[in-house]
Design goal:
The complex is a heterodimer of chains A (about 200) and B (about 190). Chain A is α+β, with helices and mostly antiparallel strands and about 200 residues long. Chain A has helices at about 5-20, 25-35, 40-60, 70-85, 90-125, 150-160, 180-190; strands at about 140-145, 165, 175-180, 195-200. Chain A is built from seven helices and four strands. Chain A is flat and about 75 Å long. Chain B has about 190 residues and is mainly α. The chains are: A alpha+beta (about 200), B mainly alpha (about 190).
Chain lengths: ~200, ~190
């Protein structure tokens, strides 16, 4: 037997498919019937229709560009360009060994320079690691939690450090977090025993 | 997948990331048939993205071909640590921004109006609140909303399409909806205050 609660939850979860037009007719009718008597689902339906309407307008604006003949003409033009580019002239072929030689010489020079710098730095007494510098924080953090825990526990753990989960977990179990005070949250996250890795995202 | 029939103005369903990767690998081996399939699969999403970036339709075809030319040249360099569409749209964004800057310079120099050759439909009334809210979302969050609310996919299907776990899709959907609703509520409050 389907309870009222079940129907309500089902309706909320089904609304995107309903406005997306992928729901069978009898399910669509059930969504409309429930939304008629449920204020929350009615509001959600209004929201879903607005979001769908926005994307529909966006796609309509480029509909003329998606014509099949236009696409074929575009591809033919591109393929002609690719074919023309791939006809390598004999002069260009003769230039290749010279280019390879120049690049090899350049790589050797850079390698020598890097090696010299490394040797000088290794001998220097006041060596600083990158870890001594303050972390570059741009508002988002990436965190990996070591132990196997339920997702809800992990989210609670991460939020206890003043963060909000905005993405994840990835296949590797990495979460992306947003923090009002990223530097402070980073410090608190790194102090948590279960946190295996906590790093600011690239700026 | 990319040969699904068109319904109304709705374009073909977006292709699975795994299928795009397979095509891209073949393109790296200079497979013309695979490149044609990739071109067909990416064209709708690229056309719309470029139109969004440059704001004019007359050069979308040309820019789209510039992007796909880069894809042909660099298919072998795709490292696979992002979705194929993310990689391609990144190239498109760069191409579109450069073109826009060039047009602005040319327009300023010659002081002439832009010419729009393609006949486009009159723009429908825009829902500025939704548009503003979506602009504040990350591309992953926006794409998740689009795949569920426009294409009507379930979370499991979106996970398959984007090549990420179902849990991630649910998290993205939750935060995207929450942020969007916050923006809409703020807009209503501001409207009432004024």
């Amino acid at each position: 037997m389907t309870t009222t609660f079940d129907r309500h939850t089902w309706c909320l979860e089904t609304l995107p498919a309903f406005v997306g037009g992928t729901l069978p007719p009898h399910d669509s009718a059930a969504v409309l019937a429930h939304a008629d008597e449920c204020a929350q689902c009615r509001a959600e339906l209004g929201f879903a229709r607005r979001v769908h309407g926005h994307f529909d307008r966006e796609w309509s604006s480029v509909a003329p560009l998606l014509d099949a003949e236009r696409e074929q003409a575009g591809f033919d033009q591109l393929w002609s360009r690719i074919s023309a580019d791939e006809v390598v002239s004999p002069a260009a072929r003769r230039r290749v060994p010279q280019l390879v030689l120049s690049l090899t010489a350049l790589a050797a020079t850079i390698g020598l320079g890097v090696g010299l710098l490394w040797y000088q730095n290794a001998a220097a007494p006041d060596y600083h690691t990158l870890a001594d510098s303050p972390p570059r924080v741009c508002g988002q953090l990436r965190v990996q939690v070591g132990q196997q825990r339920p997702a809800a526990d992990i989210v609670r753990l991460l939020e206890s450090a003043g963060t909000q989960v905005v993405d994840g977990p990835s296949a590797e179990g990495v979460y992306t977090l947003r923090a009002a005070n990223a530097a402070e949250s980073l410090r608190r996250l790194r102090a948590l025993p279960d946190v295996r890795l906590a790093e600011p995202t690239d700026c | 997948m990319w040969n699904a029939p068109r319904v109304g103005t709705k374009p073909d369903s977006p292709p699975f990331d795994a299928e795009l990767r397979t095509l891209l690998r073949k393109v790296a081996d200079r497979d013309r048939t695979a490149f044609r399939a990739l071109y067909h699969a990416l064209r709708p999403v690229l056309a719309r993205h470029l139109f969004r970036v440059v704001g004019r339709a007359d050069h979308v075809d040309e820019l789209l071909n510039d992007v796909m030319w880069v894809v042909w040249q660099n298919a072998g360099n795709f490292r696979g640590d992002a979705q194929v569409t993310t990689w391609v749209l990144g190239i498109a964004t760069l191409k579109g921004q450069r073109a826009r800057q060039r047009w602005h310079r040319e327009q300023a120099f010659f002081d002439r109006p832009q010419v729009v050759e393609v006949e486009m439909p009159a723009p429908a009334e825009t829902d500025h609140d939704i548009e503003g809210g979506l602009a504040q979302l990350s591309s992953e969050h926006r794409d998740t909303l689009e795949l569920t609310y426009y294409f009507g996919y379930s979370c499991a299907e979106v996970a398959q399409l984007t090549g990420c776990p179902v849990g991630t899709v649910k998290t993205r959907l939750y935060h995207a909806r929450r942020r969007l609703k916050q923006v809409l509520e703020e807009s209503i409050r501001l409207g009432e205050a004024s």
